[in-house]
Fold:
Amino acid sequence: MSAALLGKILWVLMVAGWYVIRYPFERRAKRGRVEKTARGKAETARMLISLTGLGILPGIFVATGFPRFATYAPSPLQTALGLVLMVAALVLFRLTHKALGKMWSVSLDIREKHELVTRGIYERVRHPMYTAFWTMALAQALLLPNLVAGLAGIVGFGTLYFLRVGPEEAMMEERFGEAYRDYSRRTARLVPGVY
Structure:
């Protein structure tokens, strides 16, 4: 099996793993009551851009090979590194969902009786789910040997992240006040000791 085909198969498994992890939390979240939301046209646009980069464009490439002009032959080392990042992303993704439990939301929502989660993986990092998505986007860039489809995840998710993290932190600070400011001072946004 070629490294290119293996990379495509692994990307499909990564997307399937993402869905399997998220599905039960999404079902549970639909039953919970939302007290306050910052959803709207801007949030919908950010989510669509991220979906395009992490799902639609790479999915088209995996299914059809389009755009062929941007395809190259990957090395087995590149695919192996993509696999390592894929596993790391899915593990982080699972840990974030487990730690958030009932507080999880796909968007900028404050739930009824919302609690500030600072345990588990959230003990040292404020946004480990974003860390998981960044890792997933990097895995995609290594697994899919196409400059457009591979890098689309970094661009798509990067757009969502940089346009959303500020409003999300402002919403949390408004809700939790000094407790959130204190939490922010002692934690990193994405990677402990780095950022």
About this structure: The mean pLDDT is 93. The chain has six helices and two strands. Strands lie at 34-37, 109-111. The radius of gyration is 17 Å.
